[in-house]
Design goal:
With 134 residues, the protein is an alpha+beta fold. The protein is built from 5 helices and 6 strands. The strands form 3 sheets. Strands 1-4 form a two-stranded parallel ribbon. The longest helix is centred in the middle third of the chain and has 15 residues.
Length: 134
């Protein structure tokens, strides 16, 4: 199993946080450009709440949400091509491959096969995949 820098308790809320599509007027965007930022970039400091948030569900039951994260994004119709996506993922895995040296304890002997049990490329692949899906 791969050793990752982020535990599943940190990964799940980060990847599966609510997305908010932001559409603003040209005047609002022009006002933000005075600071060389887009409206979405100006909203990013407010994406993670450090205090508890109190929300109610459809049955009017209160719930406390800790460390709520939001993701603001502009609607975009630009979708990368399948070829470019595959090439990006391929390059990500190649860059994350270890050198030719075998790390002691990183192999597993199964019959006549020697398997490498370390997958250092996995975290780089996962991060790139998540970035491309956002």
């Amino acid at each position: 199993m791969a050793h990752t820098a982020q535990s599943w308790q940190e990964l799940i809320p980060d990847v599966f946080c609510p997305h908010v599509a932001v559409m603003c007027t040209r005047d609002a965007e022009a006002a933000c450009q005075k600071n060389n930022l887009t409206f979405v970039e100006m909203m990013r400091p407010f994406c993670q709440l450090t205090a508890e948030a109190h929300v109610r569900d459809a049955h009017n039951q209160p719930h406390v949400v800790k460390n709520l994260r939001l993701r603001f994004s502009e609607p975009s119709t630009e979708v990368p091509s399948m070829g470019a996506t595959k090439q990006t993922m391929h390059n990500t895995v190649l860059k994350a491959q270890p050198g030719a040296a075998i790390v002691p304890g990183s192999t597993l002997q199964v019959g006549n096969l020697t398997l490498n049990v370390l997958t250092p490329w996995f975290e780089a692949y996962r991060e790139q995949y998540i970035q491309m899906m956002r």
